[in-house]
Fold each of these.
Amino acid sequence: MAKPPGKRIAIRPDLKLGESGRINKNWRRLFLDSLAESSNVTLSAERAGVSTSRAYKVRREDAEFARAWQMALAEGYLHLEMEVLRRLRDGDSKTTDDGRFDFANAIRLLAAHRDNAVRAAGEVRDVSPAEIRASIDRKIEDIRRRIARQKAAAEGKGA
């Protein structure tokens, strides 16, 4: 059962791994901002100065925080989607460590998280899950077509 907002949620000492001393009273906002940016729970908890156990426990017990978590993940999904599209448009396949951006895995990740994104986006906007899924499917298909065109162009230049 969810606790009313503002109630303190106690956490066992053994679940506080990664926390040092006093917790920032704004840790939830910091966590959610980082989650929207990175889609990474562990990194977001670290940035907020809390353990992942605390974040998950609060999500289980606070319905409003759970809803905000879903919205942050939906935003993170959109960031990833836009990053993939930007890279495709710009022909940017380099990573910061001089590696190559893995478009195939990025598309697999987008497809794997599509259902969560659909659910969260439907809660944020008054749009049916079917409409959101169709929109995501169109975007993923567009990404696949762009990759195929880029591969064909690269093979044409190499020949």
Amino acid sequence: MNAHRHNRSGVHAGFIGMVMLAASATVWAAPAVNNIEAGRALAFNRAQGNCLACHALPGGSQPGNVGPALPMKGVTFQQMFQSKEKLVAFLSDPESLFPYANMPEFGKYKVLTHTQLEQIADYLWSLK
């Protein structure tokens, strides 16, 4: 009987552990507000991300018109890329996903670090 009780408590502890792991993964996946702000700062920075050279962005000044206004009307970044990781991959090397993309390869040519690309992706992901 004790073995049966021990087995049930072990299963219960394992279940609680999985729930806690899932909860911590959910918290980890949510971008911090400072990541979104850092991404916005990079996107607006004419010497770094320089997204405004080609795109209109909410609150941006002197936007370009080479690329679409962001966010695009009728489609979200979530719909276009399904995950932030895919958006980061696109920002890093757009031509790997869209061969005729007319966009700088920020990661491929080390214009921005992976962390900076993640911050810009967090910012873009937050746009509604």
